Amino acid sequence: MTKIFLATGNKKKIIEIKKILSELDIEIYSINDGIEIPEVIEDKETFEENSQKKAVEISKYLNMITIADDSGLCVECLEGRPGVYSARYSGENATDLTNSKKVIDEIKEIEKEKSKNRKAKLVTVITLAKPTGETYSFRGELEGEIIDVARGTEGFGYDSHFYVEEYEKTLSELGELKNKISHRTKALKKLEKELSKILG
Ligand code: IMP
Known about the structure:
Helix content is 34%, strand content 24%. The chain has 200 residues and is an alpha/beta fold. The longest helix has 17 residues, at 183-199.
């Protein structure tokens, strides 16, 4: 069975991704298995570049096929912000709460001058890197709207403010269903389709 390392420090994400890839004939390892990895600075301008940088560096370090992702929220009226800065949008000591507040405050500021547009998307780019340096990247997007008042208790990041019209719920309220429709799932499904070809 092919061993693949999942390079993310976010334990909720590890659980989400493992569930999505659980049908495949691969063994997935992560920091939850006691494997230590160096920190990779995500200093690039795009999700693609950041996920590639992370996957390549960790794959070379562990000499193991590695999957890394970079994700974020892109709000239309904020010209795509917070984008690649989603995790630290409200500064060094950012929390999900302070990040969401900053996004909502900025949207409200814009709405003083422009008509209401709450459209947003969550974006993930997943990259699989081989220790030889070859990379394969896949993008997934989920469209929604930003709401002012948090709803739901599950998930992480901007989930409780990200409203999905089709289900009339936020991602936090959707719970398990999030894993069926999310940006990460869409990217992972694309990877899943190509995986046997990639692994040869
Ligand atoms: P990362 O680079 O993939 O760790 O994601 C950066 C940031 O984007 C996270 O800290 C969250 O704030 C946000 N984010 C990523 N994925 C999600 C999601 O599934 N729901 C809500 N927010 C997310």
